[in-house]
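Let's sit down with a protein and look at its sequence and fold side by side. We need material for that, and I hope you will provide a protein of your own picking. Once you have written the record down, we can walk along the chain together.

***
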Amino acid sequence: MTLPGESPAEHARPGTPRAAIAAGASHIVVGRAVTRAEDPVAAFRLVRADMGL
């Protein structure tokens, strides 16, 4: 999963949470984008915002 401002080259299958849901995903794996973020809470909020939550 790629968040705004991240390099897609860091991920095997880059895409946004919204794109994954649109493609039919039933689950979103949120890993390094949040756990390695300087501010994990803000990163998770970006994930939720991208999903429209």
The chain has a mean pLDDT of 80. Residues 8-51 form one domain.
